[in-house]
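Morning!

This is the sequence you dropped in the shared folder:
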Amino acid sequence: MSATTPRSILFVTGNANKLKEVRAILLASSSSSSSSSPQFEVESRDLDLPEIQGTTQEVAIAKVRAAAEIVRGPCITEDTALGFEALGGLPGPFIKYFMKSVGHEGLNSMLAGFESKKATAICTFAYSAGPDSEPILFEGTTEGTIVPARGPTHFGWDPVFEPVEGEGKTYAEMDGEAKNKISHRYRALEKLRKFLAEQ
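The structure's back. Tokens below.
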């Protein structure tokens, strides 16, 4: 792959905040490499994809397979999960629906009466080379604690997740650059970036 010709990646998402983070992480990763030119450009497309019930991996595989069928070519999808230790990993891949239903306060209330407030943020990028291709998964995790909401509330559950490496700040209180160095999304995307760079 020429160092001066970026490769285009189709990211199937309708979430502007996720798209912004993915672009920022890939740009930062490219600028820290030996090449001064970015390796990847991220295009996006918003598709209405079915979300099955199942494990994080099962959800990710089904989603990228459906996306590849629709776009008739290579694409990536992303799924985020937030697992509470006290609840055996729930809400997990269903965190988006829990967040919509009960909000930040409700997520905290779910852990009332439990000693452990530990949580694991999980990001799974799924890559498909096209229809009928076997999806490949890239997972990243960040450990943390569920806390009363602090910081801006525009990005999902970020205000209630305080990562162990966050120096006492929630994701929402951290600036984008600091968050992108330790986030579950960064760790998954780094694995995906390395895979794509080798293709």
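Headline: Confidence is low (pLDDT under 50) at residues 1-5.

More detail when I'm at my desk.
O.
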